[in-house]
Every structure is written in structure tokens, then in C-alpha cells.
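Review form for a predicted model. The reviewer records the input and the model, then writes brief findings.
Reviewer: anonymous (R2)
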Amino acid sequence: MRLFIALLFPKQIKDKIYDYQTEVKTLFSEGNFTGFDNLHLTILYLGETDKLMFDKIKQKLKEIVIHPFTYQTGRIDCFKKHKAKKIVYLEVKNNYSLKRLYNQVCIKLKELGLDFPTEKYTPHITLGRQVSILDMQKLYRINAKSLTVKATKISLMESTRINGKLTYIERDYIELN
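Model under review:
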């Protein structure tokens, strides 16, 4: 199974994020946009994982000690600025607790012998992939008001296709305490 670790949102936050995404869609109709039910903040992508490792990961995540915290979103931006097709995302503002959570997840999973890229962690909420943007100024004019989100649990998610549709399924979660 293909796994990742994420923070999920309550419906009222997803509704607002989806509103921002809808505005992006009206300006740039070509792209692969994240489905409402799939909106999330990735902590760490794990990739293909077997059942035995899945169980070990669940146990390791239970060792993480971090209290619930809040974080805020920022403006809408994109990766791959030099290419015609871009990843459009809702920025997540710099947050000590979020970085601490990311670091703890990496440390615990490295204890299992898992290895991750050493790229800088850039927390973001993906709104769309392969979005054709010719005029970046249109993107930057979208007024995405900052959202305050409370993180109370981390979720172990499976990425799969159901009837050809990309679907993210929460397979387990760990309450922050």
C-alpha cells in the first residue's frame, strides 16, 4: 500500500480551502485539482509499504510526544515557477510545532531503518498539479485569507485508486497529547 502521514482538516476548514481552490480553477481551468475529500497537509510521504512495516510505523508514531497546536495558512503560490505546468498550493506559515512534529516523525521512522530525502520540509496544502499558468499575477491576486487550523492528531493515510479515482483513506491515527 502507498502511505503518507498527514494532518487532516475539519469540514469548515476544508470548505474554505475548497473555496480558494475553486477560485484558482476559474482562473486556470487546465490542471489536476485535489478532490475535496483528499485535501490534507502532508507531514511525510512514505511510498509503497508492506503490512508488516505498516504495523511497525503505527507503533513508532505512538511514541511521538507533542501537544495539540495551531498553525496558519498564507497565500496561494506555486512550485515549478520556471515551467508552464505548476503545482499550486496554499502556503502554511512557518510554525515551530509543525517543524517539531515533522522532525519527530522522521526520527521515529528512521529508527525502523526507513530513509527519507533530506530536502527541506515545505509544509503546504496542494490545490492542484499540472496547472497551466501563463499569468502569475492572476494567481497572486487571489485573496486567500489566513486560516487558523488546530492539529489534534496525525493520520496514517493510504493513497489508492477506487474506480479510477485517486482516494486517500485514513488507515490509522494518533491523537496528539
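Findings: The chain has one domain: 2-175.
Further findings: The mean pLDDT is 93.
Recommendation: see findings above.
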